[in-house]
Amino acid sequence: MSTGQTMLLALLILPAIGALFAAAMPARLDRAARVGGTAFAAATFGAALFFVPGTTTPGTGAILPWAEIDVPWAPDLSLRFHLGVDGISYPLVALTTALTMLCCAYCLWRVPDPGRGRLLVALLLVLEVGIIGVFLALDLVLFFVFFEVVLLPMYAVIAVWGGADRRRAARKFVLYTLFGSVLLLVGVFTVVSATGTADLVALTDPATRPMSSGLQLFAFVLLAVAFAVKSPLWPLHTWLPAAHTEAPTVGSVILAGVLLKMGTYGLLRVAVGVAPDAAARSAPVLGILATAAIIVGGLVCLAQTELKRLIAYSSVGHMGFVLLGVATLTTTGFQAALIGNIAHGIVTGLLFFVAGGIKDRAHTGELAQLGGLRETAPALSGVLAFAAIASLGLPGLAGFWGEAFAVFAAFERGGPLWSTLGVLAAAGAALAAAYFLRLLRRVTHGAATPAVTALTTEGRLRPGELVAWSPLVLLTLAVGIVPVLVLGYSADPVAALAEVITR
Amino acid sequence: MEPIAYTAANGWLGTFWLLPAIPLASAAVLLLLGKRADRWGHWLGVLSVATSFVLGLTYFFTLRGLENRSGVELKLWDYIGVGDFKVDLGLLFDPLSAMFVLLITGVGSLIHLYAVGYMDHDPGRRKFFGYFNLFVAAMLLLVLGNNYVMLYFGWEGVGLASYLLISFWYLKPSAATAGKKAFLMNRVGDAGFAIAIFMMFAYLGTVDYAEVFNGVHKLSSGVVLVMALLLLLGAAGKSGQFPLQAWLPDAMEGPTPVSALIHAATMVTAGVYLIARSHPIFDANSTAQTVVVAVGALTLLMGCIIGAAKDDIKRVLAWSTVSQIGYMFLGVGLGGAAYALALIHLLAHGFFKAGMFLGAGSVMHGMHDQVDIRRFGGLWKYMKITWVTFGLGWLAIIGFPGLSGFFSKEPIIVAAFEREGWTAWLFGGAALLGAGLTAFYMTRLFWLTFHGPERWTDDIRHPHESPKIMTIPLILLALGSVGAGYLLSTSVPEWLTPVYGSEHTEHEPVMSHTVITILSLVMTFAGAGLAIALFNKGTALAEQPAGPLVVAARKNLYTDSFNEAVFEAPGRYLTRALVYIDNRGIDGLVNGLAAGVGGGSGRLRRAQTGFVRSYALSILGGAVLVVAAMLAVTFG
Fold first, then answer.
1. How many C-alpha atoms does B301 have within 13 Å on its Cβ side?
2. Can you give the residue ranges of the NADH:quinone oxidoreductase/Mrp antiporter transmembrane domain (chain A) (predicted)?
3. Nearest to A393 by CA among A376, A381, A405
4. Which of A24, A427, A462, B472 is deepest in the core (most CB within 10 A)?
5. Quick check: A175 contacting B, CB < 8 Å?
6. B352 — contact with chain A (CB < 8 Å)?
7. Does B612 touch chain A if contact means CB atoms closer than 8 Å?
8. How far is A372 from chain B (nearest CA, A)?
9. What does pTM read for this prediction?
10. Given an 8 Å threshold on Cβ–Cβ distance, is A389 in contact with B160?
11. Considering Cα of A143, then A145, then A149, then A155, what sign does the dihedral take?
12. pLDDT surpasses 80 at B560
């Protein structure tokens, strides 16, 4: 087994062991369990760092993994345990390991009610296994299995550690996601039974495209709707604000930071890769819905009165840009989607962290009850302003590239429809400025409200927050100033994928 | 047209990246060190901009000494590559950017110095200088980029810095809101600018100035027109031109040095820079040029009319800025030799308007932060330096013979009359009328502030002159307003020859030069005289009932109400409707579905009868479904 293969396995095994370890510890060793879990998360991050140099794999296929594991799993059903990492999945894998590590570290200092932090850490690690599995899977059935692994731990995180209305939010999350899973299952079943293989590399290969166009369309619609629920794409997004508002801080961070990306990644790798002709036919619909998400998400944000809910809705708009990028089916669009994914993960992760920090201190997230945070907590409001400005897409910070490239990709497609979508999306970027500035105006500016005045003594950043947030601030700057950090990995595989569509 | 080419920067000029880097580094130090830099931070801020100014001077003279001074480029590194979208990070130092560098750092240094005194008692002074330096760095990046993406970076950076500075006194709700409004309206313009950049890339495959300008003649005139209009939208946002002018007067909520630096000398001129820089695009389409001229003419009149009805000293100056930039837009829209004229006016305006804003700050400083000109009067006795320097600025802006405004505004009016056909009368007439109105409202401002009876509020006993650190910049800027006009009017066109060429087809104006000059002087003296006659005895302390025009002018010619009615109100309703749909429509559907499933599972529970035959039936049903799906797959 090569080092690459070992590391690939380590990415799944380390968090799994960590989860078992943390869950098995007795209650009196809660802190030790959390430290141990964090150590495993850090080790997983270390394993992900192994792939930082990247590689150019020789060959001409549509998917050329840098490292690959391919062993029979259920030979009778021709299922294989096929994992691999390439330039499209690697940035997401790295982001997942990083965010999980930061969330676990955050839990060292702060455990949301009702305590039992070791179980929360264990669940975060199980989530990590599922998410990384989704990004690494090169077998359709395996992909589906990992996709499902994520569901229950997230449900538990929301239902146990969430806010007042957590049960309803968790139920909604499960219902929506199960609905998506059913469609995904039928879609996977359709593809596998029609082609006789579940291997993504083979399925994406332009040389073998055995599905008829009608069947492709059928499969694509199923898969696309399934991923659209996860992403989420308007109008299938309403689970998201509820889940985000009620989830504990670390839950929100993982949810927004990487869980949503399973949807966009799936759309790009599975739906577009397996059914490229159908994708080309459905692209205008997808583009229109994505643009609607940008505009509607932005407008709805303007009316939100709760901090976390507002940030959650902003995700709808941002993921709209990502989906617009995918919908253009161009190299630029795919690149836009990938860097948009990463940037949204970093920046929105940070936003949810800060929002959590504010809610913890002021005991409210209502914008009407917040105000003048700069007076009592200058550092906290400084980070909030930084994250908000990054999220509204200021050039030089991470959020800019995905949005700019998505709009550009739409113009590159040309024609009246795509040009209109580009103009609307650009206007949506201005909307993002409107609601984030409104947020800052309400929360940080003006005179301090009673809820904010009360936190004079705890206005400083806590150690856990410094540890968890500063890497995200640095990453926001790094990706903003040197976007090649992300784009460099995906250039070749994205070009290959775009070629699959044109061929 | 000859292709545009820049040479590679080497030798001393190879270091001109230091210009934006120094203030940026200083900003980082000031903002990251926090309280530790409180004692000396402001001096670091002044020093960094002054250093950039001195460096800028050396680069300026080096460039002047070059044989070919069309401009030197500095490639920094390959920046981004996505698909076919590739941009190299590079800087350009050419006569146009050199001029802006000197204006930004020169006037900027004086305003920084003034701010040391003005912000003396403010606990946030260090942070203020951090933002101030950030602004200067972004503005320098804006004028030094060698492609539109770099320009956009600086452009957005400037927007961010101005947001931070306008809402600097964030405890004041009006200041916090004004900052938001400024950033937002700018963003609307920026969206247009961004689309223009994408169009360049989509049609020309590049965003480098040289390549875009050399390729623009290959494009169809429709594409050029759209591109130019989108650039104009961006420029209008940044420069406070119609229809995106509303943010600029509100921005006066920021500390006065901010108004002087950002809203007089630098940021608001970025729009003029954008059009002046993109001149090959605008030259290629006369319709686009006419639109620029029309926007300029409309805005200059609008600014005058509204400015004449305002009573807040800084807001009058703000509307005056809107109006003066209208003159600059008029100039760059006319094209040809008028590019240089507009830029001369931009420089001259940078001096006298910055001086007057700082003068206004000095008045406020001595009058307990009073801003209402109805509560000033007779101040000339108490603050002599402010009076004299402000007076020179006043004479300069109204175009008093011999001062800078006379040399800079006058030729723009003449140039407007050089257009062909009826548009010469329309735009020339507007510019001429604007000269009279400018004289009226500026004289009103000056007279009500410094002359006439004292109408102070009761708490003011002894208005005092400001400390030296504030008056020295005032004196230097006033010297600029006096002397610069003549010097600029002869040297700038020659200096800019490499950018705009020296061959210009001259039209004869529809009236002779002399007649236009006499007319404009008559308008000026009439306006000023009328104002003195009306306001020599002071004015009422409260707003008086007035005719429809004055009422309209007080309400900003109903432009705010228009924005409110056409954009904000429908936007609010749309927002509410969407929230409703989200909560009731989509969510209702899902919740209904959930309830249905819940009820369904209740019924399903009843189906668990324990009878094997009913289970078998269900299994059969499931199997049929699966087989049906498989058949569909096989024959689909």
1. 14
2. 137-425
3. A405
4. A427
5. yes
6. no
7. no
8. 7
9. 0.86
10. yes
11. positive
12. no
Query: What is d(CA B177, CA B157) in angstroms, rounded to the nearest whole number?
Result: 19
Cβ-defined contact of A302 to B160 (cutoff 8 Å): no
Closest residue in chain B to residue A433, using alpha carbons only: B184
List alpha helices for A50-116, DSSP H. Answer: 90-109
How large is the average pLDDT for residues B571-590?
Answer: 73
User: Does ipTM come in above 0.85?
Assistant: no
Residue type, A73: W
CA distance A234 to A285: 12
Whether A244 and A308 have beta carbons less than 8 Å apart is answered as: yes
B574 and chain A in contact, CB less than 8 A: yes
Phi, psi of A81 (to 5 degrees): -90, 90
| Tokens 């594991």, residue located | A69
Q: Does B187 contact A at CB distance below 8 Å?
A: yes
Q: Note whether B578 contacts A299, CB cutoff 8 Å.
A: yes
A with B: how many residue pairs have Cβ under 8 Å apart? 138
Per-residue pLDDT reduced to its tens digit, A12-49:
999 999 998 888 888 888 888 889 889 999 999 998 88
The minimum CA-CA distance between B191 and chain A, rounded to whole Å, is 6
Q: Are A359 and A443 in contact (CB under 8 A)?
A: no
Domain count for chain A, please give it.
1
When CB atoms are compared, the residue of A426, A438, A491 closest to B195 is A426
**Residue span of the structural domain in which A86 resides:** 3-502
One-letter amino acid of B249: P
Query: A191: which residues sit within 8 A by CB, 6+ positions away?
Result: A140, A198, A203, A211, A219, A223, A274, A275
Written as six digits, the tokens of B21 are 């880097």
Instruction: Tell me the domain boundaries of chain B.
Output: 1-284, 286-554, 564-635
Q: Which of residues 189-208 of B touch A (CB under 8 A)?
A: 190-191, 194-195, 198-199, 201-202
Q: Which of A191, A383, A440 has the highest number of chain B CBs within 10 A, making it the mutation to test binding with B?
A: A440
Number of C-alpha atoms within 13 angstroms, CB side, residue B100? 31
Measure the CA angle with vertex A331, ends A327 and A337; round to 5°: 55
Which is it for the CA torsion B544, B549, B551, B557, positive or negative? negative
Strand partners, B86: B81
Q: Is the pLDDT assigned to residue B547 strictly greater than 90?
A: no
For the beta carbon of residue B177, count every other beta carbon within 10 angstroms: 19
- Lowest mean pLDDT across A25-39, A59-73, A378-392, B326-340: A59-73
pLDDT for B636 equals 44
Separation between Cα atoms, residue B298 and residue B607, nearest integer Å: 77
Q: Which residues on chain B are in Cβ contact (under 8 Å) with A372? A: 171
Say which residue the tokens 């003649």 belong to: B217
Instruction: Give CA–CA dist A314/A346, Å, rounded.
Output: 14
Quickly tell me which residue has 């946030």 as its tokens.
B124
